[in-house]
Amino acid sequence: MMDESADVSRHEQVCLVIRYTDDQFHVYERFIRFERTSCTTGEVDQCYDSASAIRAIYKGIAAHLIQFIPIALYIHCNGHILNLCLIDLSEVVVPIRNNSSIIKSLYHLIEVSAKRHHIFDDIQKQAGLASIPLKQLCDTRWSCRYESLTVVLTHCAEIITVLKEIGVGDVFIMLHVMQTFDFIFHIHLMSEVFLLTNILSKYLQKSDVSLTQALTQVKMTIASLKWMRSEHEFNRIWNETGYLYNK
């Protein structure tokens, strides 16, 4: 397995991992090494997502491998499919997209500034809460957004207090949005969705999971998401939002 990413110094590097089974079909993964590269085409993209360099039926890596190993079928990474679904969800649903922008702004407003982070830290301690920083929204691992949403949801009152103390610039816009029922509802709803997908994402990343086990977990997650669309679950989330809003 190969994937390419830029490190903190902005150098492109390739991670090479070998995945194999023994005679008893126990799955193993072995990290080989990182290799710096200046080229991001061809085999560098061999991560088995939906990149054209991989899935192109004539010139893709998968097509070339099948010429040598006919049984080496190309399979779209389930973890990547999950992230694509979450990306589409966050972009298509306007309130979710707008609230994601608010959360990004909150992070940059509070956590980038040492002074404002200290204010947030003190307010949490005064409320008798464990000091937890705001989490940055990850652009690639969307399932990690569960942690970001959870912090905002559980520390909403403290964040509002921080915004009132800062009271400059676009803070008033964020303050207005965060004090609405719609904001709390959408954050609570998405935290429930991301909780399920976060469990699935971590499961798909296990080194010893088989394809059959992965598909079973995917089906269970889909069933749970469908159940969330029931009237019973909607009423539960709505009532819980009302409780959080009135705290």
TrEMBL record:
It comes from the Eukaryota. InterPro entries: AtLOH3-like, RNaseH-like_sf. This is Uncharacterized protein. It comes from Rotaria sordida.
